[in-house]
Predict the structure of DUF6891 domain-containing protein.
Amino acid sequence: MPPVPATLPTDNELVEEIKDYIWKSLIIRGVSDVAEIRECTEELFEEELEGVNPIHVEDLAGQMVDIRRHQLTELGGYSSRLSAAFQELKDRGVLALGDFSCCGTCGSGEAHDLMLERGMDGYVYFHEQDTDDLIDSGETYLGYGLNLPKRYTEEEWEALSEDAATRIYTELCRSMAEDTLTPVFERHGIDFHWDGDLSVRMHISNADFFRPLS
């Protein structure tokens, strides 16, 4: 058996990739358990970290957790503006989900089911593939939908023509955007845009997002 390396790989680019992954895990997931971080890191960088003593990955994770915890302490309990906006949306009947589900296809179905389960009026969300862009650029797209059973019976909705159903659904989405989403995001300093086209996701910019450490 070859000797266990005393340190992490000397490839600076690889080490930076590992540090970037751990840092984003702290911001996005708020995980502070170094063993859990190490397991996820080893799973993602399985080949690159082959033969490396796990304690070195945990040491790196521990250092970064300490740095992040110090950052959050200096922020004095500040929560991200997007988290605050999402909480206000929930209070106003719109289920708002961040870093939710793996992709848009899965996210829309899962968000719709969760909205119905909780009896909310509508939903917006950004999925895991959107989160990296949000962290890097401060902007992302939002999937969205409405709770039609709160407004129409199944018989009433099925009696509508396809054109009428599309027109009504579009009007309802525009109403949610204008009456609820726009003012809430504006109150939290976040720019919101949607052109009213059902084929296009809503867009936010000038947003920050992070979770507190667990």
Observations:
- The mean pLDDT is 92.
- Residues 84 and 172 are 24 Å apart (CA to CA).
